[in-house]
Amino acid sequence: MNALRQGFVSRALMRRLGRTAVNVMGYEYDSLLKSGAVEDHAAEGYGILRKKDAYSAKCGLYVRCEGAAAQVAILMEVWGERACFTCPEMKTERVSYDVPTPSAVRGMIENVYFHSGMKWIVDRIWMLSPIRFVNVRRNEVKSKILASSVMQEANGGKCGGIYTTEDIQQRAAMMLRDVHYVFEAHFEMTEKANPSDNPGKFQDIVKRRLRKGACYSTPYLGCRECTAHFRQWEGGEIPAIDETRDLGYMLYDMDYSDENNIQPMFFRAKMERGMIDLA
Q1: Tens of pLDDT along 72-93?
Q2: Residues ≥6 apart with Cβ < 8 Å to 252
Q3: pTM of the full structure
Q4: Cβ distance 238 to 82 under 8 Å?
Q5: Strand, coil or helix: what is 139?
Q6: Is the dihedral of CA 209, 237, 72, 99 positive or negative?
Q7: What pLDDT is recorded for position 258?
Q8: Quick check: helix, strand or coil at residue 119?
Q9: Neighbours of 171 (CB within 10 A)
Q10: Which of 85, 118, 83 is nearest to 230 (CA)?
Q11: Which residues, in sequence order, are CB contacts of 36 under 8 Å at separation 6+?
Q12: Which pLDDT does position 260 carry in this prediction?
């Protein structure tokens, strides 16, 4: 850091810095300046973090400040014609939650970039369009394939498939329509990360994939048929809806700490002026 401040920049030094350096967009850099987190060296093409807790080996560059979105993790914009984040107590004839669940948001982000060496954590959800519902009737099947039937077939036993002509059933669903969101999330490194992995590398990969629209599989809004369009939020004030409401208890995620006893986790969701704060 002292060498940078004194202007002694070399290729060897920049290679060393590459392990902890993070590329940021212009608006992100401006936001970091507003928060006072960065010592400005824009003329030389870099800035130096002032706050010791702004960068960690677990979650990369992550800065918060009052009145400015100064965290540099990801901001992902998502929109679509329909969405269905099913309430678990009403899953036969589906009824959607008013807003996305954190686990659904995490799934959409993992569709863009997943790595066993990192774990996504959702911080905020912004609603950019009013919460509106539509009733639809869909063809579904009334049966499920049992795991025991799959194992039996794999061992040469009887085929246990489902035939839609016999099992088809029409069911109603109350889905969201014309949805538009912005998600804020960061990640933490896990014990499965390789020695060559680092937060700066992951942040650069994720932002590059968001800008290009790259994904491992197409993200979807709760149900596979509800295709999600996505891109990186390119900065500026997020025009969330001006609505505040108590959303009641919602599914947060599944607790996988005990693989033999996976349990759902719930939380009390509250939307303040179009934003749900999960941090």
Answers
A1: 578 889 999 999 999 988 877 8
A2: 101, 102, 103, 265, 266, 267
A3: 0.71
A4: no
A5: strand
A6: negative
A7: 84
A8: strand
A9: 14
A10: 83
A11: 50, 65
A12: 86
As given in the structure block, the two tokens for residue 273 are: 């002026």
* Other CB atoms within 10 Å distance of the CB of residue 242: 7
- DSSP assignment, residue 92? T
Nearest to 106 by CA among 201, 22, 214, 188: 188
133: three-class secondary structure by DSSP:
strand
Query: Residue 140: left (phi > 0), alpha (psi -120 to 50), or beta?
Result: beta
Which of 40, 47, 86, 31 minimizes the C-alpha distance to 224?
A: 86
Q: Are strands 118-127 and 168-189 parallel, antiparallel or unpaired?
A: antiparallel
Tokens 């960065």 locate to 38
14-61 confidence digits (pLDDT tens): 555 544 566 565 656 666 676 666 777 666 666 776 655 555 544 445
Q: Cα separations (Å) of 160 from 155, 163, 166, 176? A: 12, 10, 13, 34
The angle that helices 199-212 and 102-112 make with each other, rounded to 10 degrees, is 90
pLDDT of residue 45: 61
* C-alpha dist (Å) from residue 24 to 163, 182, 263: 52, 19, 38
Q: Quick one: three-class SS letters along 252-273?
A: EEEECCCCCCCEEEEEEEEEEC
- Return the beta strands (E) in 146-190 as ranges: 168-189
Report d(CA 49, CA 57) in Å as an integer.
Answer: 14
Cα separation of 261 and 240, whole Å? Answer: 38
Both tokens of residue 121?
């954590």
Report the alpha-carbon angle 146-148-152, nearest 5.
120
